[in-house]
Amino acid sequence: MSIATAATPPAITGAPAAARLRGEVDNRATYVSFGLAYLLGHGSAAASGGDTPLLGLPGWLPMALLGAGLAVGTVQATVAAMRAQRTAAEPEEVLSGRLLGAAWVTAFAALFLAVTGLTSSLGMPDVQSLLWPTGSGFVVGLLYIAEGAARRNLLHYSLGTWLALTSTAALLLGRPGLYWVLTIAGGSAYAIAAVLERRRLNSLSGRPRSGRH
């Protein structure tokens, strides 16, 4: 056996499984952060609302918990996307990731303008407590749908579809019913997605990847 022949197998079999996940986004941290935001933010709003509240909480606390969770989740999503861009194999994948990242800023800026404009023109400041929870879920759902389609991630796409539909359907119930829908439907969806995301990544690491994903 020659030296060249003996040196060949380690070069092939020693390649780390992570190399097959080049450009792939790990969404587990994002799912957990958003899921906790739903459970703590919307859950506290649901438990402290209505004619017979289960908990006596200050009015600002549910929104603060929701905002903190969404902020952490957004940072986690940005960090994961940046890591995927650094390891992307194709320039098109890098550009796609950057455009999707910019879409988050644009979408939430538009949501802020829409909610602020509606509450101002209608003269009903309390409507923000309805539009922000449902509107943010709707926007995140649409962004997940776009990301799932671009990255060929069926789990991400399905989660986005579920969030978009349940968030808008919750408006039919009013307060505090919509908060219970967002807590149960959204929080459980994120928990299930976090578990399935691990299985998805494990399945990808077990097979060779093509140039695009």
Mean pLDDT: 79
End-to-end Cα distance: 39 Å
Secondary-structure element string: HHHHHHH
Shape: globular
- In what range is the share of β-strand residues? under 5%
Q: Count the beta strands.
A: 0
The residue ranges in which pLDDT falls below 50 over 5 or more consecutive positions are: 1-20, 208-213
Largest sheet entry: none
Helix run count: 7
Residue share in helices? over 70%
Radius of gyration: 21 Å
How does this structure look, described?
The protein has 213 residues and is mostly helical. Helix content is 75%, strand content 0%. The protein is built from seven helices and no strands. The protein has helices at residues 3-13, 28-47, 60-86, 91-122, 128-151, 154-169, 177-205. The longest helix has 32 residues, at 91-122.
Features of this protein?
213 residues, mainly alpha, 7 helices
TL;DR?
The protein has 213 residues and is mainly α. The chain contains seven helices and no strands. It is globular and about 55 Å long.
